[in-house]
Amino acid sequence: METQVPAIERLISGLLRRSGRRNASLRIVKRFFLEYKRDLFAHLRREETLTFPYVQEVCLLFRHPKRRSRKGILHSYSMSQYEEEHNNVDEKINDLQNILLMYIKGEYDEDICNAIIFELFRLEKDIRDHTRIEDHIMKPMVAEMEKTLKLHTA
Ligand SMILES: [Fe+2]
After folding, report:
1. Nearest CA among 10, 20, 44 for reference residue 105
2. In the 3-class helix/strand/coil scheme, how is 47-97 assigned residue by residue?
3. What is the reported pLDDT for 140?
4. Which of 51, 143, 151, 152 has the fewest Cβ atoms nearer than 10 Å?
5. pLDDT tens digits for 106-118?
6. Predicted local distance difference test score (pLDDT) of residue 4
């Protein structure tokens, strides 16, 4: 959020500046990227403010079952809710790479365009790791703890 995404955004702005603002396909790239950034940041912020504090609370309770939780978060969120709302932020980044690789027309700075594609591949790898850790480690582990603790049982 602080380095990779702003760096890509700067590269895209540079691409537009160097390639002439009349190139409509580049404006589409910028719009698409800004939308992606908005979705990605919303995804990460929700996890930081809700999912991870919840996971932390479940882990604490699991380790110290007698501990009285003061946080209502244990009852207002769950791994099944997380599963429902967790959207895959790694699919849209692929679309953006495809637009850059296949649909850009007219005159544009190829060096900057290549640099953007390279940075998008790096970002995609990070995001894929993010999703893999959440789906294959965090989610099953916390769901198991919920079961043991009998959280969310009617
Ligand atoms: Fe996520």
Report:
1. 20
2. HHHHHHHHHHHHHHHHHCCCCCCCCCHHHHCCHHHHHHHCCCHHHHHHHHH
3. 96
4. 152
5. 888 999 999 999 9
6. 95
Q: Read off the amino acid at residue 118.
A: F
Predicted confidence (pLDDT) per residue in 17-54, tens digit: 988 667 888 888 999 999 999 999 999 999 999 999 99
What is the C-alpha to C-alpha distance for residues 147 and 154, in angstroms, rounded to an integer?
A: 12
Q: 41 CA to middle of ligand 1, Å? A: 10
- How far apart CA 113 and CA 110 sit, in angstroms, is 5
pLDDT of 65 reads 83
Going from the Cα of 66 to the center of ligand 1, the distance in angstroms, rounded, reads 30
Q: For 106, which DSSP code?
A: S
Ligand 1 centroid, distance to 99 Cα (angstroms): 24
Distance 154 CA to ligand 1 centre (A): 27
